[in-house]
Amino acid sequence: IVKNCELREITKEKLATALITAMEEKALDKITVKEIIEKAEVNRKTFYYYFPDIYGLLEWVISRESNKLITEIQNNRDYENALNDVLDSIEKHRHLLNCIKDSVGRVTLERVLYRELEQLASWAMKIGICETGVAISEKELQILTELSISDIWRLLLLYFQKEISYKRDEFIQFILRYLKASITAGLLEFGERDATRFAHNTR
Q1: How far is Cα 115 from Cα 66, in angstroms, rounded to an integer?
Q2: pTM (predicted TM-score)
Q3: Alpha helix segments (H runs only) across 24-137
């Protein structure tokens, strides 16, 4: 017997698959709810029970994939594997991400990737704190993390748009060296080696 919660997830997955399939055929703003429900073989009332509109469904698809990637990043113990996971996700969803950029703009695309980059940058900061042995205020840590997110985003955008000449392995090594150098420099500049000065929990 399929439980109600399982049935809800199955229905959402069918709608998500229908949307992704439709986005391979046309721009997001040209897709109608009618097309989605026909592909998913559900009625209109069911669609609106779960989502307010197509953009709501798209947000759910993005959130689902982001949560999967964030879990993978958190389970990694080194920069390279974590970054590989991010690039794998971008390449796997390149068409979907392009559709988002073309339909709703670069700002929305940046927002889509933000959570993934935030997890990667925050995780890298925690490793940097452990390696440098410094304590740092929450305010300064937040600023350094935001700067790292911005830097990673700009580099990934170049890679995503194929406007960078590096091969994948070379690109990963460049970002790793850049992140390690910038994070270490930032922490040493704004951190305090005397751990009693700031109370910061890096766990």
Answers
A1: 7
A2: 0.60
A3: 33-40, 44-50, 54-75, 79-92, 94-104, 106-132
